[in-house]
Structure prediction request, 276 residues.
Amino acid sequence: MKGNSKVRIAWYGKHFGEEPPLVGGVGQGAGGIFFSGCNLRCIFCQNKQISQENFGKDYTVAELAQVMLDLQNQGAVNIDLVTPTIWWLEIKQAIILAREKGLHIPIVWNSNGYEAVEILKELDGLVDIYLPDFKYSDDELAWKYSGVRKYREMAIAAIKEMYRQVGLFTENGGVGVSGLIVRHLVLPGAVANSVGVLEEVAKVDPQIHIALMNQYTPLYGGKDVTEINRTVTREEFANVYDKLLDLGFSHGWVQDEESQGVLVPDFRKGDPFVYN
Prediction:
């Protein structure tokens, strides 16, 4: 790779909007780097300016490596690479360079789950925490809402490879060290899609940490599609949550109305789940 290869970054800095072990304590935070562009075209994307409108600034590989080091020096507990997939080759080089210069905090690969196993194998040994958002078990919805084919097949294969590389999620003093966390955003009118996602993850290992999200908002093109021009109902989310417990998941975080969108840690089978 040439030394002047570039990536496009929309924003970087201390970020506190991730799962609790990924942001640490007071004054810490994830070292968020939000990359421009995405290999999905989700009609409801809340970051459309970044993912689909090319907002951002170009950085060389050497500059990206320095951004990582600067975030570490600011006290970030990890380097949180958000929508990194299309820039994987430049990011790989930057991680190697940054580590040569003293980067030692975990690398988080915060992706949409739609990525080739061949790419993930190139990252083996470089990524500490994989954080894919497994969006669809229903390929028709993947095509309708995100414009991609064979999403289910790609995501399942990717998650299996991630699990092979890093295993189950571990923490040290409340801060994430390594492992796999699978996110899933529940969509309105798509309980079966969510159930299918959870069933696929359970086949890999029901001890995998799950972050079940209830923050869907009908933005951009989502406002124009009748099926998703609303938020998720309490009943829909409760049905998905019940399935989560039925499948034996016991590690992770859940967003409910009472928590006002905050991911609530350490749910356990049999615990009450309160809806306002």
Remarks:
- The chain has one domain: 6-265.
- Residues 151-166 form the longest helix (16 residues).
